[in-house]
Amino acid sequence: MFNLTGKVAIVTGASRGIGKSIAVLLASNGATVVAAAREDHASETVAEITAAGGHAEIASLDVNKASEIEELVAATVKRHSSIDILINNAGIARDQLALRMKSSDWDAVIATNLTASFLCSQAVLKPMIRKRNGRIVNISSVVGQMGNAGQVNYAASKAGLIGLTKSLAREVASRNITVNAVTPGLIDTDMSKDILGKAQDSWKGQIPLGRMGTTTDVAVAVCFLVSDEASYITGQALAVNGGMYM
Q1: 232 is catalytic
Q2: Full-model pTM
């Protein structure tokens, strides 16, 4: 699909769902993937990639710990000489109406979904700037664009990612580094099933294409944005939502 041979990519939250699909598709297009997640949770992702003949390695990472982010980036540069691609995908949801939301749940979602993406981006910028080339993609959400009752923390974190994307893109464009976001809509993942439960059908009714998206739908968009074909695209939020929000 896109030739990513020779590229080194770090994917956070690579253990399942969207992150796993992104890691697998990047590898199938030639990239060496560092699949990052807590403890050894990305081992299944790495096993699938290597079984298919791709190149991948597991990385234990808690994105809420700046020291672990710095160690991962340093180790990746030491092994592979560079980092070409960063996918900020790790994220959590702790839903509740604003009046009932605990401050700890607000803090946890902002820290994991937004602050960690900033810290990961900051850490990879030095090797990317030295190489004068790089691709950063932040996985935001349609909720960050349209809002959703019961998700003020999640929506704020994902809207923040779009602002982060646009601002950082302006800062590093002169170094041939692009920064973009993908905003998935209702995607068929374990997380969406847990959140929506029996309400899935009513949500599908809001989607003009009439179906939930797949993790591959998102992964293809990401692969495009990190490819040479997208070298003139930066600071954008690419919607993958079936027309749910236009």
Answers
A1: no
A2: 0.96
